[in-house]
Design goal:
Strand content: 25-35%
CATH superfamily of the largest domain: Cytidine Deaminase, domain 2
Structural class: alpha/beta
Number of strands: 17
Strand order of the largest sheet: 12-11-13-14-15-16
Radius of gyration: 23 Å
Number of domains: 3
Largest sheet: 6 strands, mixed
CATH class of the largest domain: Alpha Beta
Length: about 300
Amino acid sequence: MGLRLPTVMTNEIVSWRNVQVTDFHRLQQYLKSSLMKEVPSIGPGRIIRRRQDGSLEYLRDDLTIEEPLEIRIGDKALATTMRTPGHDEELAAGFLVSEAIVHNRNQIAKLSTDGDNRVIVDLAEGVKLKLNSAQRFGTISSSCGLCGKTSIDAIRQSFPAIESTNVRIDIETLLSLSEKLQKAQGDFARTGGIHAAGIFGSSGELKTLREDIGRHNAVDKVIGRAFLDGLLPLNRHLLLVSGRASFEIVQKALAAGIPIVAAVSAPSTLAVDFARESNQTLIGFLRPPAFNIYSHIERVILERL
């Protein structure tokens, strides 16, 4: 017959390799995330951190918020996406553009939020909602904005290839973009866990930057902002994302008419193939002084003037 001993939690945590004692449990018995939010996208939490010298410390840490957002057209639920709160109307607008549900600003009469993680889109009078079999419903995770697609061919048919060929960018301007993006990432500097997407002019000026826990959401937000401002197509602009370049990133850029897409990390094979078919310049591993060009090299001025 075994002897069952009661669980005992010590009031002290002793660091490894030394006798330094820190009384964490008197500070707070349990680690909890505070409900107070300093900004919509960041929430504070308490953690125990092990430092390089082996000692432990109890401190506050900033965490990226991830919450569901339901996008509705009238009384019809279209999709729920896991996103970082903030710029929700832009996210909804960009989503509708990238799904080929709307094409012109005048097709949307009103965008509103009801304070309960929901954006309601009212279409203009006479505009009817038309959905094809490729368009998704349900919940979209923060890591994948294309998980429910059933036909990539249908996506290709929704958006024509880029026609603009006269927009070009020189090497020095291209190499300057990643630093500009990083400096503008206020939430990433605090949390280390959020993606960014930036729209740049061909001369290197940052037009719009948005951050989100999902890279596809960040892209939807910058595209949605341009759409709401009546600036589409962005046929003389460049999109830069802080992570990898997946198929969905290139596809969303095509929906906005963006001819050049760049990423700090690698592209996927499907992204490269799609960019080549869509007449888009795709650049990966944009980490000065290096970068890779995977398609339509003619838009990058490689020779020094």
